[in-house]
Amino acid sequence: MRTGEMMPRDHAPDGRNLSPPITWTNLPAGTTQIAVMCQDHGAGNPPPWVHWIIYNIPGTASGLPQGLPFDSTQPMPTEIGGTVHGNNSWGLPMYRGPAPPQGSLHHYHFVVYALDAELNLPPGLDRQELLDAIEGHVIGQGDLVPMYERIPMPEPRQWQGGPLPEVWPEPESDPLDL
Predict the structure, then answer these.
(1) Domain ranges of the chain
(2) Domain spanning 9-173 has what CATH number?
(3) For 23-67, how does the pLDDT look when each residue is reduced to its tens digit (9 = 90+)?
(4) What is the β-pairing status of strands 176-177 and 22-25?
């Protein structure tokens, strides 16, 4: 994913609703934990509508892999052990991708926060609770703002006598520079 480009369908309920891979570089010296939030400032009453909150990410991590567990009883990958989900605007501790009204282009603000303390926050914080908890600890921030618009799926095409593969390789994305 890149700022100003369309988010792949695999990261939306129209596709596989996988959490997207996000990478970052140049974390400030003293970063001990990282938090990530995805918000749609064009939705919600009041805005923003939060699609994803994830935190307690080790400061040594260089990103989040695609397809993190939805179920909090499933372990996170080893390299981000201890990471937990906060509650999105549906009140669920998980990633839920974009699903704007058909024909409506929305922007999705992924924000990576570099923190100067191991806060070890409990799972299930909402947006405001996370922002309150990290206040005074943010030493760097990076933003990624892809877009998504729901369009009808084309009819399946045939390829050499069979259907096209369901999964295509994920395009490379640029790391966020904090």
Answers:
(1) 9-173
(2) 3.90.280.10
(3) 999 999 999 999 999 999 989 888 999 999 999 999 999 999 999
(4) parallel
Cβ neighbours for 78, distance < 8 A, ≥ 6 positions apart: none
Residues in contact with 29: Cβ distance below 8 Å, sequence separation at least 6, in sequence order? none
> How would DSSP label each residue in the chain?
--TTSBPPGGGSTTTT-PPPPEEEE-PPTT--EEEEEEEETTSSSSSPEEEEEEEEEETT--EE-SS--SSTTSPPPGGGTT-EE---TTS-SS-----PPTT--EE-EEEEEEESS---PPTT--HHHHHHHHTTTEEEEEEE--EE---PPPPPPEETTEEPPS--PPPP-PPEE-
Torsion angle of alpha carbons 43, 35, 172, 78, nearest 10°?
A: -130
Query: What global pTM score does this model have?
Result: 0.84
